[in-house]
């Protein structure tokens, strides 16, 4: 399915990207559907060139499949079960798309390369849906945002990969808010609470949420401007610039 | 350096294990030194068989190199820079140990296999030093606990891997306490604070630490038994059994 020789890539290694989008209080995932018979949905995925850092590969794969080039991506887990092999999936694809893919099976080098066991490095990102225009590639019939509660059934363990990415996103949300660039420069406590509620998929008590979030020390409260009018507008907040994270120092 | 054919392993993939030990308020790392001329320290490392889950491989590698078989291990990051190749390291090893290793270079298949670019999956664990007896293998001249402040210079990016593992350990400490199995069934707030101080390498204010840790909802305070004596003993705590973590559901 690639136009370059498979030999140019690291063998038995793939990258899968989980792109979460936030818009109008809803959390969604960007998922292409292959331009082949059989209704196959997959995460935006690809391989790593021999000369390429894995982080570079993830950015390239995301760019190629979505047209998005400047997203903050983070690796979160390797999916490495021995049972993760592409063989059955590829055979089914070829069976359903003999006109397009039969030459694949006739080329033993490419066929063996792609049907082996793969380990996959999962990357995730969180973007403002309003700021991106997903673009399908020659591989895709469609590429769409799917509500987190209504994901299609994807190939291999791709649905599990989304769940694992979601767990990581929830765990790291407090510290990663600034990297995600999801909020305007200033925002109200209510807007922030709505973002948390979409990602955690649960309501937070309005009398408790501000205290909890302020304790994390990630927010800065701005002084209200004196306007002369009755001062009933809610306080505005902005994100504190973080100190240099450990990962920049050591990686 | 392996007795089995390299072909049995996943190509260009390794696993590196960071084993933190805690004892007497100190944090240490378990590091073998190779039984070869040239003073080479490395993290306990190895490869993944084609038929083997990566988690199984990590447990096997740790067991082979340390004699420890029942440790809670967790993967934390893939080290995947294109510049991570073994070539220079292996050539230097062969140069310094011609008597033992020259046949390695004369076998092109094995030599090419081991000198390629490798990505490495980092796993870390935290153990009670009193509970383990490290054992060296035929590869090791020594295997010892090194204070976190006095680590030897290791090969490749292994020192960076330790720093990255330490960042992850600090981030996850609250939620992973029970898995690490480092504390007796019941313990005082002071003992817990000493553990945190060793891992974060900084003091915590004694009047603030209990409140912070109790807010995490990981501890259960036990009732004092009525002994008739003046009741000056400190409260004892134990760890709450966690609910089923997400990773068990999705992985």
From TrEMBL, chains A, B:
MF (Gene Ontology): hydrolase activity
Domain NrtR DNA-binding winged helix: 180-239
Protein's UniProt keywords contain tRNA processing: no
Top-level taxon: Bacteria
Keywords annotated in UniProt: Hydrolase
InterPro entries given in the database record: NUDIX_hydrolase-like_dom_sf, WH-like_DNA-bd_sf, WH_DNA-bd_sf, WHD_NrtR
Gene3D superfamilies assigned to the protein according to its UniProt record, in alphabetical order: Nucleoside Triphosphate Pyrophosphohydrolase (3.90.79.10), Winged helix-like DNA-binding domain superfamily/Winged helix DNA-binding domain (1.10.10.10)
Protein name: NUDIX hydrolase
Native species: Spirosoma linguale (strain ATCC 33905 / DSM 74 / LMG 10896 / Claus 1)
Lineage: Bacteria, Pseudomonadati, Bacteroidota, Cytophagia, Cytophagales
């Amino acid at each position: 399915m690639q136009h370059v020789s498979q030999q140019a890539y690291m063998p038995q290694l793939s990258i899968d990207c989980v792109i979460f989008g936030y818009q109008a209080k809803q959390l969604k995932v960007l998922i292409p559907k292959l331009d082949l018979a059989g209704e196959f949905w997959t995460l935006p995925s690809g391989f790593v060139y021999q000369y390429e850092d894995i982080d570079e590969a993830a950015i390239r794969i995301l760019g190629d499949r979505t047209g998005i080039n400047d997203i903050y991506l983070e690796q979160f887990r390797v999916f490495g079960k021995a049972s993760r092999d592409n063989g059955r999936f590829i055979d089914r694809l070829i069976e359903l798309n003999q006109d397009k893919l039969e030459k694949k099976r006739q080329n033993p080098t490419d066929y063996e390369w792609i049907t082996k066991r793969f380990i996959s490095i999962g990357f995730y990102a969180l973007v403002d849906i309003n700021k991106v225009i997903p673009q399908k590639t020659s591989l895709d019939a469609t590429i769409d945002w799917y509500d987190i509660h209504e994901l299609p059934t994807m190939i291999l363990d791709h649905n599990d990969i989304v769940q694992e990415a979601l767990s990581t996103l929830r765990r790291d949300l407090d510290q990663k808010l600034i990297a995600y660039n999801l909020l305007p420069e200033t925002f109200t406590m209510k807007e922030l609470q709505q973002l948390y509620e979409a990602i955690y998929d649960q309501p937070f008590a309005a009398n408790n949420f501000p205290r909890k979030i302020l304790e994390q020390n990630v927010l800065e409260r701005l002084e209200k401007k004196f306007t002369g009018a009755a001062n009933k507008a809610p306080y505005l907040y902005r994100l504190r610039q973080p100190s240099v994270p450990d990962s920049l120092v050591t990686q």
